[in-house]
Amino acid sequence: MPQDPNFYIIIGAFAVLCDGIVSTLSLRGWREWIALKHAELDAGRQLPEGSSPSAASRIEVADLKERVKKLEAIAAGIDI
Fold it and tell me: How far apart are CA 52 and CA 38, in angstroms?
């Protein structure tokens, strides 16, 4: 049976078909994952009107301001 030329044609066609199916499913999964990440990012950006920032974000902003002050002092040559 492996000596039959049609055997190799059928095996080759089957391999190409399987590769196409796997590639299509992988691409679909990738697109769905990207769509999920976009939805997560969009949900994180939406803040209700009139709401104040959370305590964690205020602490983070204060920490960043402190770092900026230290960097400005270093740039000016002042020891802190």
Answer: 24
